[in-house]
From TrEMBL, chain A:
InterPro entries: DhaK_L_YcgS, DhaL_dom, DhaL_dom_sf, Dihydroxyacetone_Kinase. NCBIfam families: dha_L_ycgS. GO terms for cellular component: cytosol. The keyword RNA-binding does not apply. Coiled coil: none annotated. This is Dihydroxyacetone kinase subunit L. Keywords: Kinase, Transferase. GO terms for biological process: glycerol catabolic process. PANTHER family: TRIOKINASE/FMN CYCLASE, TRIOKINASE_FMN CYCLASE. Residues 8-208 form the DhaL domain. The gene is dhaL. The keyword Kinase applies.
Automatic annotation (TrEMBL), chain B:
PROSITE patterns: DHAK. One of its GO terms (molecular function) is phosphoenolpyruvate-glycerone phosphotransferase activity. One of its GO terms (cellular component) is cytosol. Keywords: Glycerol metabolism, Kinase, Transferase. The gene is dhaK. This is phosphoenolpyruvate--glycerone phosphotransferase. Residues 7-331 form the DhaK domain. Pfam families: Dak1 (PF02733). Its EC number is 2.7.1.121. It catalyses: dihydroxyacetone + phosphoenolpyruvate = dihydroxyacetone phosphate + pyruvate.
Length: 211, 333
């Protein structure tokens, strides 16, 4: 149980994610203007602001309870595709993390994988579809690989955040096949995906808060 | 950005206050942002609910009333409503005969309505059936895309399915009528200008003075191609031809012809476009059985229009002609 992550660490991750969304909301909306409907930054900021209010208002006894609240808050405040996708990610993350007040590195990686599987189930996205999956999947792979190789959680999360950013950058030349960007066909090529961008911010926040 | 607003974040909730004040025949649940017909639930009648991002007015709130929708869920600007809104609306409008969810084919709308239907099944005994509208021929449908968008056909579907529900048809029958309308409807849109989402503060896309976008949806998202601005008769060809070849419509078929304004185009231009559309249909031997011209499914102040054609049958035409009494569509009452 070295590298155990406590509830306050997990809360710091979410607060850090909210701060990064706030700092990048205009950039996210700008990216969404190019291939979507110009609301990703606004929507994520509305959701994370609601999450901060929920964190300030209550104490949560376990990771499961904490992430259930976060997931439900996102589903009920974001709307669009991002609400169900991020909401499902955190709901599944919480179920996998379980009824504990601290989780070790392997459990954290398993929870991230469960969250990713939730995104796949809800959005039916695959690698290369130009979605948040293209940032999250390489992050989960990197986390598993580093931990299996015996790396500490801090190092492994840095590698995961780096992999998410690399995955985010790789969405630029892709042809969108899911979501509103898919309606543009060839014209979606050449634009970085806003969902992959916010997902990379989530992994960067994890590396900063939990590493 | 020049708009008649207070704060960008308050646009939807303040507009709902105005809708409630202007229409005593409607009732608004402000915390949940749901617009109801004031007498909902109607006992024994299949209830229809729809919803989507705001910014498309009168869709959907303007179509709440006898003969059409029982409730409309208003999402944030261009953002689908959340499952809680739809679940609340579903419980409130059920008159014992079940509820039809009318969903436009956008990823967010589909996912949120799916979650709402799952919750309704888990938490209530209300019978829910969903129909997804996907009438936009601008999108090349394939296994590898999210499918075609739901656009102008949504208006025709809400009217016709609403009439079927008013006649006392069962949930299965109303859903079948809705699916038939969707299968028989095709749309194509174009834009002369972008809209500006209040929270974004600047136009969603840049477009030159001499350019237009062909194949746009209803969210200011760019279309499939950008071409030089052309006279209305050529624009009409660009919109109608892909529709006619898609279904396909045959010589002698009757249609409802719907020329829709995107929000920033005046009626004089829409009527001029209707004339061009009618001439093309006449040339192809397609008979216009009924028509609808005006801004009914809009994209804020975007200039442009869309054309929707729906192949009619006697049953569908009778349902179209049935009385409707809503803020935006009213006849026969």
């Amino acid at each position: 149980m070295s590298d155990a992550v406590t509830l306050s660490g997990l809360t710091a991750w979410i607060r850090g994610f909210a701060a990064l969304i706030d700092a990048h909301k205009e950039e996210l909306t700008q990216l969404d203007s190019a291939i979507g409907d110009a609301d990703h930054g606004t929507n994520m900021d509305r959701g994370m602001t609601a999450v901060l209010a929920a964190l300030d208002g209550d104490e949560y006894p376990s990771s499961a309870a904490l992430f259930k609240k976060i997931g439900m808050t996102l589903v009920s405040s974001i709307g669009g595709a991002s609400g169900p996708l991020y909401g499902t990610f955190f709901l599944r993350f919480g179920s996998a993390a379980g009824d504990n007040d601290a989780i070790d590195a392997e459990a954290l990686a398993a929870a991230l994988r469960a969250g990713l599987d939730g995104v796949v189930a809800r959005g039916k996205a695959e690698a290369g579809d130009k979605t948040m999956y293209d940032a999250l999947a390489p992050a989960a792979d990197a986390l598993d690989k580093e931990l299996a190789a015996g790396a500490g959680l801090g190092h492994a999360l840095q590698a995961a955040a780096d992999a998410a950013e690399k995955g985010r950058d790789a969405t630029t030349p892709m042809l969108a096949r899911k979501g509103r960007a898919s309606y543009l066909g060839e014209r979606s090529v050449g634009h970085q995906d806003p969902g992959a961008t916010s997902a990379a911010l989530m992994m960067r926040a994890a590396a900063s808060a939990l590493g | 950005m020049k708009k008649l607003i207070n704060q960008p974040a308050d646009v939807v909730s303040e507009a709902l206050l105005g809708i409630e004040a202007a229409h005593p025949e409607l009732r608004v649940d402000h915390p949940n942002k749901v617009i109801y017909r004031a007498d909902a639930p109607v006992s024994g009648k299949v209830a229809l609910i729809s919803g989507g991002g705001s910014g498309h007015e009168p869709l959907h709130g303007g179509f709440v009333g006898p003969g059409m929708l029982d409730a409309a869920c208003a999402g944030e600007m261009f953002t689908s409503p959340v499952p809680e809104q739809m679940l609340t609306a579903t419980k409130a409008v059920d008159g014992g005969a079940g509820v039809l969810h009318i969903v436009k084919n956008y990823t967010g709308d589909v996912m949120n309505f799916e979650m709402a239907a799952e919750l309704a099944a888990a938490e209530t005994g209300v019978q829910v059936t969903s129909v997804v509208v996907d009438d936009d021929v601008a999108v090349q449908d394939s296994l590898y895309t999210a499918g075609r968008r739901g656009v102008g056909g949504t208006v025709l579907l809400e009217k016709i399915a609403g009439a079927a529900a008013d006649q006392g048809r069962s949930l299965t029958e109303v859903a079948d009528v809705a699916k038939t309308v969707n299968a028989q409807s095709r749309s194509m849109g174009m834009a002369l200008t972008s809209c500006t989402v209040p929270a974004a503060g600047q136009p969603t896309f840049e477009i030159g003075d001499g350019e237009m976008e062909i194949g746009v949806g209803i969210h200011g998202e760019p279309g499939r191609k950008r071409v030089p601005l052309a006279p209305a008769k050529e624009v009409a060809e660009m919109l109608v031809e892909p529709i006619l070849t898609d279904l396909p419509f045959s010589s002698g078929d009757g249609v409802i012809a719907f020329v829709n304004g995107m929000g920033g185009t005046p009626l004089i231009e829409l009527y001029l476009m209707y004339n061009e559309v009618a001439r093309i249909l006449d040339r192809h031997g397609v008979r216009i059985a009924r028509s609808l011209v005006g801004p009914y499914i809009t994209s804020l102040e975007m200039a442009g229009c869309s054309v929707t054609l729906m192949k009619v049958t006697d049953d569908l035409l009778e349902l179209w002609d049935a009385p409707v009494n809503t803020p935006a569509l009213r006849w026969g009452v």
